[in-house]
User: Which sequence fits this backbone?
C-alpha cells in the first residue's frame, strides 16, 4: 500500500472530478433521450469515463509494491506564492489601478523564487511596471487605470 | 494550385501582414530563447497581444511566434544544453557537444538552415495535401466527425509521452472543462455555479495560460538552474562546405520523418526529432560519433521538428482537428475570431488559408535571415536569470487574462487552474491532452447530438458508415497498441 503514490493521487483527483460532474449534472440538468440528447447527457457520460479512469489509476497506485519510487516531492512555496500574487493582482487592479496591482504582484511572486534579493526585486518591479504601463496602456491602449484615484483612461 | 499560392502571396505580402509576421517571429524568438519557456508558453503569453488584430493577421502572428519560439528553443539547446521543450531535447545531445568544441556557430547555422529547408517542404506539403484533404472532409457527416475526433483525442493521449491512461483521463477532464457554460442547444447553464462570468464557458486563454505558463513556472522553480552559457562570442558562424555536405542528406531525411509524424495526432515535433535522430544513428557508418558533436545529429532532428511543426497545420487547418497543444491554441485563436475551423475554411476563406500558408514560409525565411546575424543578441538574452524572468511571465499572464474581458474572475480562474496544473504535472499528467479535449469538447458534443438525432437514437451508423468505421478501427488499433505491452508483461511475469 502506497497512499502517497502518484498514480493513486492522480486517480483520486480524476475520480473526484468525475463524481462531481455526474452529481451536478444529475441534480441540475435534464438527460433527454438517446435521440434527443439533453444538456446533461454528454457530461454524465464524460464524468463516468473520468471516474472509471480514476478508479483504475487509484487501484494501480495501491497495487505498486511499497518500495516503488513514485512518491511526490511537493514544493508548496513557489506555487502558492504565484497563485497568491495573481489573486492579489486581480483583486487590486479594478480598485486601485495598474501600478498598485503590479507592485505587490511582483513582490509576492518573487517570494516564490529560490532566492529573494531585495534590491534586484525592487529594480525588476520598477522596470517591469514602467514597461507594462508603456506597452499595455500607452501603446495597446488597454482600458486600465494607471494610478489610484485618477479615473481616466489613456 | 498556382493561383492559390499567388493569392496567398498577395495576402501575405501586404505591408501589414508582413509586419505582423515579422513581429511574431521576433517576439517568438525573443521569448523562446529565454530558458524554461516552451513554444506553448510563449504563445499563451503573447496571445492577448494578437486578438485585437484582424483574424488573418492574428493567425499569421501566432504562427510566427510558434516558429520563432521553436527556433529560439534550439538556440538555447545548443548553447546552454537546456532543452526548452522535448522537441529540442535531442538537439542538445550533439549540438551542445559541438558548442563545447567551439563549433557553436556551425551548429546554429546548420540548425537554422535545415529548419528552413524543412519549413519550405512543409509549406509545400500543406499547399498540396490541404485542399484535397479538405474537399474529402467536406463529405463528412456528423458520424465521421465524431469518429475522427475520437481517434484524434485517443491517439493524442496514447502516443504523447507519458502514461496513456493518465492521458485518456486528461482528455476526459478537458472535454468536461469544455462543457462549462451555456449549452448552445438548450440554453441550460452547465457547471457555472451561478457565476455570470462562466456563462460563456471557461476562457480559452485562462485554461492555456493557467495549465501551461503558470503551472510550468511553479514546476521550474523547484529545479535548480543548471545554467552556464557556453560562449560569449561565436567565433565563426558559417559552416564549412564539408559541414553542409554532411548535413544535407540528414536534413532531407529528417524532413521526411518529421513531415509524416507531424500529421499524426499526439506525436508532433517531439517524437519526430527523436525518430530522425535514431534513424541517422542507424544509417551512419560510424555511429559512435553521435553524442560527440556529430553535425548530422543537429541537422536531422532540427529538420524533423520543423517539418512536423509545419505539417501539424494540415489536420488543424483542413479538418479543424488539432494534434498538439500548440495546434489547439491555434484552433482556439480561430474560434475567438469567430471562425469555425474545418474543411469549409479553405473554400469559404481562401485568403485566410492561403495567406497563412504563405506567411509560414515567409516566417521561416525571416528566421534564417534575421536570426543568424542576431545570434549575439540571443546569447546575451540567455544570461537573464530565471528569478527575473518568472515574475515578469506572471505579469504577462495576469494582464493578458484580465484584458480579455476586463474581469478579475478570469485572473482568479487562471490562478486556480495554475494550481491544478501544478498538481497534475507533479503527478505526471501531461496537460496537452486536456487542452485538446477542452478545445474539441463542444464540437464533439454537437456532432454527437446531431448524429444521434439523425439516426433516431441509433448509434449503429458509427460502425456501418465506411469512413466512420475506418476511424473507429483506427481508434481501436491505438487502444490495442496501448494495452498490448501490458498484456505481454503479464504473461511473462
Assistant:
Amino acid at each position: 500500500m502506497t497512499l502517497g503514490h502518484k498514480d493513486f493521487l492522480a486517480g483520486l483527483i480524476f475520480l473526484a472530478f468525475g463524481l462531481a460532474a455526474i452529481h451536478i449534472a444529475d441534480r441540475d440538468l435534464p438527460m433527454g433521450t438517446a435521440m434527443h440528447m439533453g444538456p446533461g447527457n454528454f457530461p454524465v457520460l464524460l464524468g463516468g469515463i473520468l471516474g472509471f479512469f480514476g478508479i483504475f489509476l487509484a487501484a494501480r497506485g495501491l497495487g505498486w509494491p511499497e518500495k516503488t519510487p513514485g512518491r511526490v516531492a511537493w514544493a508548496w512555496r513557489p506555487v502558492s506564492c504565484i497563485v497568491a500574487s495573481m489573486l492579489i493582482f486581480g483583486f487590486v487592479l479594478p480598485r486601485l489601478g495598474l501600478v498598485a496591482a503590479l507592485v505587490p504582484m511582483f513582490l509576492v511572486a518573487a517570494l516564490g523564487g529560490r532566492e529573494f534579493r531585495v534590491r534586484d526585486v525592487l529594480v525588476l518591479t520598477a522596470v517591469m511596471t514602467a514597461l507594462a504601463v508603456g506597452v499595455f496602456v500607452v501603446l495597446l491602449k488597454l482600458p486600465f487605470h494607471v494610478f489610484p484615484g485618477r479615473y481616466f483612461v489613456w | 494550385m498556382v493561383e492559390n499560392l499567388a493569392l496567398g502571396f498577395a495576402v501575405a505580402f501586404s505591408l501589414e501582414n508582413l509586419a505582423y509576421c515579422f513581429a511574431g517571429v521576433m517576439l517568438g524568438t525573443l521569448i523562446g530563447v529565454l530558458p524554461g519557456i516552451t513554444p506553448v508558453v510563449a504563445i499563451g503569453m503573447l496571445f492577448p497581444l494578437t486578438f485585437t488584430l484582424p483574424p488573418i493577421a492574428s493567425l499569421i502572428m501566432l504562427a510566427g511566434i510558434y516558429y520563432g519560439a521553436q527556433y529560439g528553443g534550439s538556440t538555447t539547446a545548443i548553447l546552454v544544453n537546456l532543452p526548452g521543450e522535448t522537441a529540442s531535447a535531442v538537439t542538445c545531445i550533439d549540438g551542445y557537444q559541438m558548442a563545447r568544441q567551439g563549433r557553436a556557430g556551425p551548429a546554429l547555422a546548420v540548425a537554422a538552415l535545415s529548419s528552413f529547408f524543412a519549413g519550405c517542404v512543409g509549406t509545400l506539403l500543406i499547399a498540396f495535401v490541404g485542399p484535397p484533404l479538405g474537399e474529402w472532409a467536406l463529405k463528412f457527416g456528423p458520424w465521421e466527425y465524431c469518429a475522427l475526433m475520437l481517434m484524434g483525442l485517443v491517439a493524442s493521449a496514447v502516443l504523447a509521452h507519458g502514461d496513456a491512461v493518465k492521458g485518456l483521463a486528461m482528455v476526459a477532464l478537458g472535454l468536461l472543462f469544455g462543457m462549462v457554460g451555456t449549452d448552445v442547444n438548450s440554453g441550460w447553464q452547465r457547471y457555472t455555479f451561478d457565476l455570470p462570468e462562466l456563462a460563456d464557458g471557461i476562457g480559452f486563454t485562462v485554461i492555456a495560460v493557467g495549465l501551461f505558463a503558470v503551472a510550468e513556472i511553479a514546476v521550474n522553480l523547484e529545479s535548480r538552474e543548471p545554467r552556464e552559457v557556453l560562449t560569449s562570442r561565436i567565433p565563426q558562424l558559417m559552416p564549412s562546405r564539408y559541414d553542409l555536405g554532411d548535413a544535407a542528406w540528414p536534413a532531407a531525411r529528417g524532413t521526411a520523418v518529421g513531415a509524416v509524424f507531424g500529421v499524426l495526432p499526439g506525436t508532433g515535433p517531439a517524437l519526430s526529432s527523436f525518430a530522425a535522430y535514431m534513424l541517422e544513428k542507424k544509417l551512419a557508418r560510424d555511429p559512435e560519433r553521435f553524442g560527440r558533436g556529430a553535425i548530422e545529429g543537429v541537422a536531422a532532428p532540427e529538420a524533423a521538428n520543423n517539418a512536423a511543426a509545419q505539417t501539424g497545420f494540415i489536420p488543424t487547418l483542413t479538418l479543424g482537428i488539432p494534434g498538439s497543444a500548440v495546434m489547439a491554441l491555434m484552433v482556439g485563436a480561430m474560434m475567438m475570431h469567430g471562425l469555425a475551423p474545418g474543411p469549409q475554411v479553405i473554400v469559404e476563406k481562401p485568403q485566410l488559408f492561403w495567406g497563412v500558408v504563405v506567411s509560414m514560409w515567409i516566417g521561416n525565411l525571416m528566421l534564417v535571415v534575421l536570426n543568424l546575424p542576431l545570434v549575439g543578441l540571443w546569447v546575451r538574452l540567455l544570461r537573464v536569470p530565471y528569478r527575473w524572468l518568472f515574475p515578469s511571465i506572471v505579469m504577462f499572464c495576469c494582464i493578458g487574462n484580465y484584458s480579455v474581458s476586463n474581469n478579475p474572475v478570469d485572473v482568479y480562474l487562471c490562478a486556480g487552474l495554475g494550481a491544478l496544473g501544478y498538481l497534475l504535472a507533479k503527478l505526471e499528467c501531461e496537460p496537452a491532452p486536456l487542452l485538446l479535449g477542452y478545445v474539441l469538447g463542444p464540437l464533439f458534443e454537437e456532432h454527437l447530438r446531431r448524429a444521434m438525432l439523425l439516426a433516431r437514437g441509433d448509434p449503429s451508423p458509427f460502425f456501418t458508415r465506411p469512413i466512420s468505421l475506418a476511424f473507429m478501427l483506427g481508434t481501436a488499433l491505438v487502444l490495442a497498441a496501448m494495452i498490448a505491452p501490458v498484456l505481454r508483461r503479464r504473461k511473462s511475469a
